[in-house]
Amino acid sequence: MSTRWPAWTGGTNCATGSWWRSDVPRISGDSIAEHVARQEEAVVQAAIRLFTERGAAQVTMADIATEVGLARNSLYRYFPDKSHIVATWFRREMGPLKEAGETVAAGEGRAVDRLADWVVLHLGYLSTPEHRRMLQAVTATDVMPAPLRREIADGHEQLYQSLVQILADLGTTSELVTRLIVSMVRTGADMVGDTHPLDSVAGDVVRAVLAVARS
Fold first, then answer.
1. What element of type H or E holds 26?
2. What is the DSSP letter of 78?
3. What is the DSSP string of 116-172?
4. How far apart are CA 93 and CA 96, in angstroms?
5. Do 130 and 59 belong to one domain?
6. Average pLDDT, the chain
7. Are residues 63 and 104 in the same domain?
8. CA-CA distance, 137 to 52, in Å (whole number)?
9. Are 108 and 126 in a shared domain?
């Protein structure tokens, strides 16, 4: 009795010797990239949820894998460790803020008004719960590799280039003045809370910043 095999509908790549079937769907490069991007986004969002609930120091890669519905080994295909997830979170948060600061700096209004707008923009973001959670995750990741720590430090420095541009338009090129203003904005952001509304803190910080910039 002879065996009847299904009709072959594929072919062979003569150069490589590999075979293919025409009835098997192929995944394009774009589809693979989209799949990876979706999985990475799912991992980051799962990690953020866990960091928020437990604190980053108490969350393991196994916890994140379970939250997102991946085997632990599969998770490592996307991120080698927790610090790389935190760094990805940082990039996604800082990118839009950097662009917004550059837009303010490039505006056509008076430099003093652009400086006030820059302060309000950054104060508003730095005082959000989202930023505070991210900052806690960064500081809680003790084993973050040196290159990632440098990247995060450089990312903060890049945020302030738009401030440097505005101060230059005011005739101020002092690095000390720049760092004083950054410090005042950070301190103001730390103060924002139930007893210190954002609007009230923003007014005080803007007045202090303008006084320093004009001195």
1. none
2. T
3. HHHHHHHHHHHTSHHHHHHHHHHHH-TT--HHHHHHHHHHHHHHTHHHHHHHHHTT-
4. 7
5. no
6. 85
7. no
8. 9
9. yes
Q: Does residue 201 lie within any of the structural domains?
A: yes
Instruction: Report the number of secondary-structure helices (H) and strands (E) in the chain.
Output: 10, 2
Average pLDDT over residues 162-175: 94
Q: What is the pTM of this model?
A: 0.76
Per-residue model confidence (pLDDT) at position 24: 43
Are 208 and 126 within one domain?
A: yes
pLDDT tier at 144 (50, 70, 90 boundaries)?
Answer: confident
- Give the CA distances from residue 68 to residues 47, 56, 65, 133, 190, in Å, rounded to whole numbers and listed in that order: 8, 16, 5, 20, 32
Domain that holds residue 50: 28-79
pLDDT at 197 over 80: yes
What is the mean predicted confidence (pLDDT) over 92-96? Answer: 88
Rounded CA gap, 107 and 103, in Å?
6
- Interval 142-148 mean pLDDT: 79
Asked if 22 and 10 count as a contact pair (C-beta separation under 8 A), the reply is: yes
Confidence band, pLDDT 50/70/90 cuts, at residue 36: confident
**One domain, residues 36 and 103:** no
User: Do 65 and 86 reside in the same domain of the chain?
Assistant: no
Judgement on whether residues 164 and 207 belong to the same structural domain of the protein: yes
Number of domains comprising the chain? 2
- Tokens, residue 215: 């001195």
